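Re: that chain you flagged

S.,

Sorry for the slow reply, it's been a week of failed gels. I finally had a moment to sit down with the sequence you sent. For the record, here it is as I used it:
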Amino acid sequence: MSTPLPPGEVKVFGPEESPSYWQPVPANGFVRCILNPKTVQSENRFAMGTQTVAPGCHIREHTHDRHEEVIHLTAGRGFARIDGEDLPMETGSTVFIGRDRKHGFVNPGPDPMTFVWFLMPGGLEDFFAAIGRERQPGEPAPEPFPRPADVAEIEKRTVFGWADASHNPRG
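Prediction finished late last night. Pasting the C-alpha cells below so you have them in one place:
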C-alpha cells in the first residue's frame, strides 16, 4: 500500500500581486509573470502569466525548441503568425503551439491586445525579467525602449530555439 501524498498548494493572486515587467520594442506593453516555480510549488514545471501588446506592435517570430505554449486572448484582436500563416484572433480565441513551431503575434489595431500565456515546462518568466523593466501598479507606460544588447544570449539561455533577429539591437 502506498503512502498518500499530502495535498498540493493553493494560492490566489490578485491583479497586481505578481512580478510584472514593461517590455521593449517591438512588443511594448507589459507582462505579468503570475505562476512559475518561484511563486508556486507544483509537481509539473510550467509558467503562466499575461501579456499586453500595445496597439500597432507585435511579438516577433520565434520558436521554443523544448516547450509547448498556449495563448488565450482576453482582450482586443489581432493575429497569430504560425509558420508564416496569419490566423485571426479575437477575444476568446485560444491557440496551442507545439514545440519548434515558428510563431509570433501581431496587434494591428487601435486597442491593446491582452492574452494569457501558458508555457510548459516554464522558463518564460526568466526571459521577461531579463529583457524588461520592473513595472509598478498604476505607473504610466514608459517611452518605447530597446531590447538589451545581449538579447540573443538571453534567448538561448531561457526558452527560445530561434528568434527573428531583425528587431535585435545591432552592435
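What I noticed first: The radius of gyration is 16 Å.

Talk soon,
D.
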